[in-house]
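Hello Y.,

Per our agreement to keep a running log of every chain we model this quarter, I'm adding this entry. I've kept the format consistent with earlier entries: sequence first, then predicted structure.
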Amino acid sequence: MKPVLVPTTDVNSETGLLLAWHAADRSQVASGDTIAEIETSKAIIDVPAPEDGFILHAAREGAEVRLTEPVARVFAELSELEAFAAEAERLRAQAAESGPRASEPARRRAEELGVDLATLAGDTLITVGMVEAAAAAATTATIELPDPLPGVAGRPRIALIGAGLGATQVIDILQAAESGDAVAIVDDDTSRWASEVMGVPVVGGFERLVSLFGEGAFDAAIVAISTSVPARARLREACAANGIPLANAIDPTARIAAGVKFGTGNVVCAFCHFGVDTVVGDNNFLSAYNSYDHHNRLGSDSSTGPACATSGLVTLGDRVRLGTGIYVEPHVELGDDVQIASGSVIVASVPAGHAVKRRVVTTAVVPPR
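Predicted structure for the entry above:
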């Protein structure tokens, strides 16, 4: 039996949408055949069969699938497939009879986190979210949370929201620019609590951020999550609702021309360029080597990959997500909530809520003979 995984290097997407099956359930496939299409936030990906055999679907069309889990399995013999399917059905029926009602993903997640499903039993179906909430509650009760760092006198004390890779980028920018000191990090993932990122302690979740601000432990916050536009927007709104100001983190290598205006909460990575009279909104995460030519207008809560470049008089709306290596022609407008796939060249405006995607085909590299 061979699992079928989605062939993607997209580190910014955890899930994808199963658009279509090109091989029927239990049908015979050949190695390299395109058996499914998966849509991520950046591309439509053709999924090939890993070997000859018979395919057993693990998800239906239209389902959201995790990119780290098999979307199907290929068996050398049809009888092997049927035996596997029968055993899986028997186990599902046994679990339904002998234990609480839970989805298959919830059962797997409970096993990973060590959560006893019996403690969650009730009248409703147990979901992954319920399992993770129970695990978080158990973890919270046993963790001793650290205090924020004191910071350096005369510099703003900055709390970061998000303890992932984006936090390392923001800390590096603050250190290079000497524009503020990262004194604490919050993250709602309890597995990160009491750890450190580049020497900065993870002091708890968002609720701790609110209480620490009330205690005067920091001066402003920066959302250090680069990959999720909805999370950036939600966290900015949560900070505003609690009176927490946002600070900018602008790398000292950035080239900022005359008349450029920035809002608050922006993260500007190394070697970015902002042309004359460009206006940048609030809470954007702009990766390295971005270039926004003269008289651009950038909205708020957007995120980009490296090496994106716009010509003059370009407008980006709110909550725009750009991949890597995107070029935008003059006078183009990208509406609110637009997503652009890596490697795209945009020559016409894109309406709000639309996506520009590129098809990714898995190919074999054959050495010259």
